[in-house]
Every structure is written in C-alpha cells, then in structure tokens.
Amino acid sequence: MVYTMVRSRRPARLSLDAFAADADIHPELLRRLVNLGLLDPYVDDAGQFWFSPTQLSTLARARRLHDGLGLNYAALGVVLDLLAHIDELEAALRSGHRPSRRYPSWT
Fold first, then answer.
1. List of long-range contacts for 3-9, beta carbons under 8 Å, 24+ apart
2. Mapping DSSP to helix (H, G, I), strand (E, B) and coil, where does residue 51 land?
3. 34 domain-assigned
4. Torsion 101-102-106-107 (CA) sign
5. CB 55 within 8 Å of CB 19
6. Over its length of 107 residues, how does the chain's per-residue pLDDT go in tens digits?
7. How far is CA 28 from each of CA 12, 14, 17, 33, rounded to the nearest angstrom?
8. Is 49 domain-assigned?
9. Residue 80 maps to which CATH number?
10. Would 68 be classed as within a structural domain?
C-alpha cells in the first residue's frame, strides 16, 4: 500500500490582514491585542506583523473568555497565562515528567 504525503495548504505565517480575516475580527482590534501582549506575532524588518496559524486558537480562547465571562482585555492576559501554565503542568503530568518550577510571567 502506498501512502501519499498530504501537505497543509495553510501558510507558515499569516499577514495581519489574512489573520484578521481568518479570525473574523477587524485588523485594528488585532493590532490592539498585539499591543496588549495577548498575541505575539513575528515582526519583519519592514515592521509588518506575521502570525503563526496556531495563534488562531489563542485568539479564539481569548474571545471566548472575553465574550463568555466578560473579562476585560487586561484580565485576559492574566487568565491566558494561567491557562497556558495549567496546560504545561497537565502535559508534564501526562508524560510522567516532573513539572518545572517556572512561574507565570506575571509574578
């Protein structure tokens, strides 16, 4: 049996406009989220933002927290850091490794 490789059609990086379109948000809101530190794009030499497609899930999580719990944008950063730390701890426990003693960036 022969298996063919399936290549992803999603680019390695998305421009600000493409990311905003995929996320269904206005580019200015996306810039605001970057300025607040909720998303961390690659910035090229021309100052253009480029986003990893995996950041779409981070943005979706932030939007759910904002819409569902009414968290303001400042609180989102704290909650997203906590959730990321919890994810790391759970992954370490599942793999049988001892979690690191690293503390969230906001401490």
1. none
2. strand
3. yes
4. positive
5. yes
6. 555 555 556 568 999 999 999 999 999 999 999 998 899 999 999 999 999 998 999 999 999 999 999 988 889 989 988 988 898 899 988 888 776 666 555 54
7. 22, 16, 10, 9
8. yes
9. 1.10.1660.10
10. yes
